[in-house]
Amino acid sequence: ALVDKGGFPHHMLREIYEAPLSLLRTLYTLQEKYLQLASRLILGADNIYIIANGTSLHAGMVASYYLSELVGVSPVVTSAAEFPLYYVENIGPGSLVVAISQSGETGDVLSSLYEAKIRGATILGLTNYIGSRLARLSNVYLPIAAGPELSVPATKTFTSTLLLLYLVSLAASKESGRIDSITYREKMESVKSVASRLSETMTRMDEEVKKAIIHARNCRGGYIVSRGITYPLALEAALKLKEASYFHAEGVEAGEFKHGPFVLVEKGFMTGFIIPVERLAAEATYPLILSAIEAGASTVVFSLEGDEKLSQIQTETVSLIRTPRAERHLAPIAYSIPLQLFAYRLGVDLGRPIDAPRYLTKAVLR
Ligand code: AGP
Questions:
Q1: Which residue numbers delimit the SIS domain (predicted)?
Q2: Predicted local confidence at residue 2, as pLDDT
Q3: Helix/strand/coil for 72
Q4: Mean pLDDT across the stretch 12-27?
Q5: Closest by alpha carbon to 56, among 81, 32, 21?
Q6: How far apart are CA 184 and CA 176, in angstroms?
Q7: How confident is the model at residue 308 (pLDDT cuts 50, 70, 90)?
Q8: Ligand 1 centroid – CA 175 distance (Å)
Q9: From 102, 108, 150, mutation site for ligand 1 pocket: most ligand atoms within 8 A of C-beta
Q10: Closest by alpha carbon to 341, among 226, 198, 219?
Q11: Ligand 1: lining residues by beta carbon, under 6 Å
Q12: How far apart are alpha carbons 60 and 79 in whole angstroms?
């Protein structure tokens, strides 16, 4: 509370607004030689485990799509709380453990790393604090470089972590010969344009979010539904809604929606949809939106700009929030902003403490 909020009522809002700048900071702080080292670790590993907690774990889940699509490797992604109990037996000198922690001090991440190191694994650490224990335990570490984050609900560090994981995967893709240098450079350029588009559209998105809040404020809970590379974003949005708004929400994989979750959908229940970036997955989502509307749910749709299909679905029970269209792998970054704003605005509307949710601390040491 003693730290300047730069004119914003809460650190969380200031930090969301800072995200585009933090993305550039992440991009420019990263040195080519460390990226290359990290890529070699990825390409040389017999098996890869990504371990983290909470928001960092959701970033790790997105990274599994990056690595599998850009590098052709399928990492095991697991909570750092599960790793030492159920996974370490398979860890050996050929294993690479990618540990993600904003604070670099999360107890479960550190104890996982001790266990992994004892068994000879190599550690690639990603952290926002280069003086942290995570950095010291890593064979190679990469700075998230989002700048200090004071709000307990993580925001700009999430977007910057996503970017860092994307850049590492891209570098490994280039190193393995899957993409050439020209494509690599083009993709780097598109990172800059996403950052500037997000900054240009921030206020407009925030206005759309403020209007959408009416669809959640009187609801007893809700779902955030998505699929594919944006499914971890649904989990992350649900976590942010709990922390910042004390609003019970659950992330649902769109294909699972009709296998049970749909039963709760009715008037007084919120259903949020993040339209997937893959065309077929997006098309499979539209009928779900219609079903939710028909069931009387308050519906909020997060989409990419220029989604024409959605202009047909406009009733008073639906709100539409648009984020800049970004290429597939950058879409999770683009979607993060309106989802974080939504949790923030709902929290403000419901009078929640926002920056300091009860029981929670910025780093869960043990
Ligand atoms: C994020 O909003 C939460 N406060 C929490 O889930 C957090 O991401 C988790 O505790 C992990 O923290 P870390 O990244 O510092 O390891």
A1: 37-178, 205-357
A2: 57
A3: coil
A4: 98
A5: 81
A6: 12
A7: confident
A8: 31
A9: 102
A10: 198
A11: 53-56, 101-103, 106, 109, 152-154, 243, 360, 363-364
A12: 10
Q: Give CA–CA dist 128/145, Å, rounded.
A: 6
Tell me the pLDDT tens digit for each residue of 109-136. Answer: 999 999 999 999 999 999 999 999 999 9
What phi-psi label fits residue 291: left (phi over 0), alpha (psi between -120 and 50 degrees) or beta?
A: alpha
In the structure, how many helices (H) and strands (E) does the chain have?
11, 10
- What is the model's pLDDT at position 76? 98
Q: Which tokens belong to 142?
A: 């990469």
Share of the chain above pLDDT 70, in %: 99
Atom nearest to 362 CA in ligand 1: 4
- Of all protein residues, the one whose alpha carbon is nearest to atom 9 of ligand 1 is 54
CA–CA separation, 336 and 316 (whole Å): 25
Phi, psi of 54 (to 5 degrees): 55, -130
pLDDT tens digits, 135-158: 999 999 999 999 999 999 999 999
Confidence category of residue 314, pLDDT binned at 50, 70, 90:
low
Q: What is the mean pLDDT of residues 52-68?
A: 98
Pocket test residue of 12, 57, 106 for ligand 1, highest count of atoms within 8 A of CB: 106
Exposed e or buried b per residue across 9-28, where buried means at least 16 C-beta atoms within 10 angstroms of its C-beta:
ebbbbbbbbbbbebbbbbbe
End-to-end alpha-carbon separation of the chain, Å?
25
**CA atoms within 13 Å, Cβ hemisphere of 25:** 17
Q: At what angle do helices 181-212 and 331-349 cross, to 10 degrees?
A: 20
**ipTM for the whole complex:** 0.99
Ligand 1: which residue has its CA nearest to atom 6? 54
Does residue 52 contact residue 78 with C-beta atoms inside 8 Å? Answer: no
- Measured in angstroms, how far is the CA atom of residue 159 from the centroid of ligand 1? 13
| Residue 341: partners with Cβ closer than 8 Å, 6 or more residues away | 16, 205, 206, 209
